[in-house]
Amino acid sequence: MERYSDKDFAIFAERIKSEYALAKEELRLLRDQVNELSETMSQNFGADMGEDSSSVSSLELLNEQVLRKRDHVQALQNAMLRIKNKVYGTCSVTGKLIDRQRLEAVPTTTKSVEGMRLEASGQLDITAQDIARRAVERREGPNKIISKIKKPPPPPRKAQPKKRKKPGRKPRRPVEEDDDLI
């Protein structure tokens, strides 16, 4: 499987660490704003309905921003973990290297543009693990690889006895009677 060099990983790690520190600070500020707004709302709630609805919508907006920022912080932590495991920059769909420009634009990405297109189009039938396994099989030969998971054989089909028609008369059709009610 292709991967970036240790020097590249160090450059990516520095970039992610700086973004992580900035995101953590922004998250702290947003949480402080939520706490401050919650306190002011509890003190003056009910005085003016227009102001109350405005405060509630502002609080909802801030909470959404906190959730988004928290997800971003988590994604940055995951990216650092991928760097530590030396799989950062490898597409989770195709198994190929993600373009450096894409990683600089979106350092938390796990998919290349090609991988995203494949996934979005529904043409994706194999994963990066399948690609990696096939690469290993090509290097070592298919006979040296023993699959850990073996599919059980399908259950045997039960033979259905054929129904034979008895020789003889055809069944009678019921006679429809005309009901003249008029």
Largest sheet: none
Helix/strand order: HHHHH
Helix content: 55-70%
Uncertain regions spanning at least 5 consecutive residues: 141-149
Q: How many domains in all?
A: 2
Q: Helix tally?
A: 5
Structural commentary:
- The chain has 2 domains: 1-88; 91-148, no CATH class.
- The chain is mainly alpha-helical and 182 residues long.
- Mean pLDDT is 78; it is low at 141-149.
- Helices cover 57% and strands 0% of the residues.
Give a nutshell description of this structure.
The chain has helices at residues 6-44, 49-84, 100-105, 113-121, 128-140. By secondary structure, the protein is mostly helical.
Topology:
Layout: H1 6-44, H2 49-84, H3 100-105, H4 113-121, H5 128-140
Protein traits:
182 residues; 2 domains; 5 helices; RNA polymerase-binding transcription factor DksA; coiled coil
